[in-house]
Amino acid sequence: MQEHTIARENPFAAAPVGRLIAKYAVPCVISLVINGLYNIVDQIFIGRGVGYLGNSATNVVFPLTVLCVALGVLFGDGAATYLSLKLGQGRIADARKGAANGILLSVLASAALLAISAAFLKQIIYLFGCTETVEPYALRYGSIVMAGFPFVLIATTLNSIIRADGSPKLAMVSLISGAIFNTVMDPIFIFIFHWGVQGAALATIMGQLLSLIISLSYLRKWKSFRPTRADYRLSLRHCRAIVPLGISSFINQMATVIMTAVMNNALTAYGASSVYGTDIPLAAMGITLKVNQIFLFVVVGIATGAQPIIGYNRGANNPARVIQAFKICVVSALLASAAAFAAFQYSPLSIVSLFGAESDLYNDFAVKSFRIFLLFCILNGFQTVASIFVQAIERPVQAMLLSLSRQIVFLVPSVLILPVFLGIDGVLWAGPMADGLAFLLALAVTGAEIKTLTSAKDKTAELAQGQPAVYETTL
Question: Could you tell me the pTM of the whole model?
Answer without folding.
Answer: 0.76
